[in-house]
Specification:
about 325 residues, alpha/beta, Rossmann fold, seven-stranded parallel sheet, two-stranded parallel ribbon, about 15% strand, globular
Length: about 325
């Protein structure tokens, strides 16, 4: 199979591409390799994909928010399916840089829908986010819950992606699956996310900014479990059978949570980091940040029932794996 993967230099896109290449697929990776975080990490990921994939990994350094440029870059290449993971990430960054989300997350998503439509592709999987649940207090979060009260612009763009996808599934019968990712971590992760920044600060002896005075819970999901869910959706397109799908659509459009189905206290994760690093953390308790939520917790019954998805990695196993990779990557 030939698969177009956007965000191929990013954490999840890179990790997915490795698995697809390992099983013999061809991957056409698209990424503009922006400087939202350290470009050297993105380039290191790309180098690994070239090394592992050989001529089955084709990389296009292209901004998918530029429709004409994207179409021109893709013209020489054939592919069967799309996994659209590229986006401008970050809840807090959306507070200070809103226009970046307009371009990457709204225009970019529409562009990939148009590519899939005009090429008559038989499946497109795309990244949504657990952030769409906003201020929901019902736990765990289920795909049948209402998600029309986002608390950040990032979340609003991801909800908009879901609505655009429903329209394309209705008008063009394009099979689509949206994945609401919960807090993802693991080797080759993002330097702007908690697991990386806390590790970095503990090693440097710097205080950890812990919001809501430590009363925070997250559904931490290990990268290998995330990728397993993405691959399951890629290999099983949403059927156009008129039946009600996860998320409520009768079109070929499904919405799934991908999480660990466990809501872990942030302080427990910090204690595992301390144990693995052999160093105590200095905690700087702070109030809740704008756009943030106190707790995330994934109800994964829909994807488990439809596709047999079962995450297997607890934080007690996953965090040490991340720390081992972090030390190796930094030569510690």
């Amino acid at each position: 199979m030939k698969v177009l993967v956007t965000g191929a230099a990013g954490f999840i896109g890179f990790s997915l591409s490795r698995v697809l290449l390992a099983r013999g697929d061809t991957v056409i990776g698209v990424d503009c390799v922006n400087d939202y975080y350290d470009v050297r990490l993105k380039e290191a990921r790309l180098a690994k994909l070239r090394d592992e994939g050989g001529d089955r990994f084709i990389f296009l350094r292209q901004d998918f928010a530029d429709y004409d440029g994207l179409v021109a870059a893709l013209k020489p290449h054939q592919f069967d399916r799309v996994v659209h993971l590229g986006a401008q990430a970050g809840v807090r960054y959306s507070i200070t840089h809103p226009h970046a989300y307009l371009n990457a997350n709204l225009a970019g998503h529409l562009n990939l829908l148009e590519v899939a439509r005009h090429r008559s592709l038989d499946n497109m999987v795309y990244a949504s986010s657990s952030s769409v649940y906003g201020g929901n207090t019902k736990l765990p979060f289920a795909v049948k819950d209402r998600v029309d009260q986002p608390v950040s612009l990032y979340a609003a763009t991801k909800k908009a992606n879901e609505l655009m996808s429903e329209t394309y599934a209705h008008l063009y019968r394009l099979p689509l699956t949206g994945l609401r990712f919960f807090t993802v971590y693991g080797p080759w992760g993002r330097p702007d996310m908690m697991m990386w920044t806390f590790t970095q600060k503990i090693l440097a002896g710097e205080p950890l900014p812990v919001f809501n005075n430590g009363d925070m819970y997250r559904d931490f999901t290990f990268i290998e479990d995330i990728v397993a869910g993405v691959v399951a959706c890629l290999d099983n397109p949403a059927p156009d059978d008129g039946a009600v799908k996860a998320g409520g659509s009768t079109k070929p459009h499904r919405l799934y949570n991908i999480g660990n189905h466990k809501s872990e206290h942030l302080m427990k994760v910090i204690s595992i980091l301390e144990e693995q690093l052999g160093k105590k953390a200095e905690i700087d308790f702070q109030p809740m940040q704008p756009g943030d939520v106190r707790q995330s917790f994934a109800d994964i019954d829909a994807i488990s029932g439809d596709l047999g998805y079962r995450p297997t990695t607890s934080i007690d196993v996953g965090v040490p794996k991340f720390i081992a990779w972090y030390k190796e990557y930094h030569g510690i």
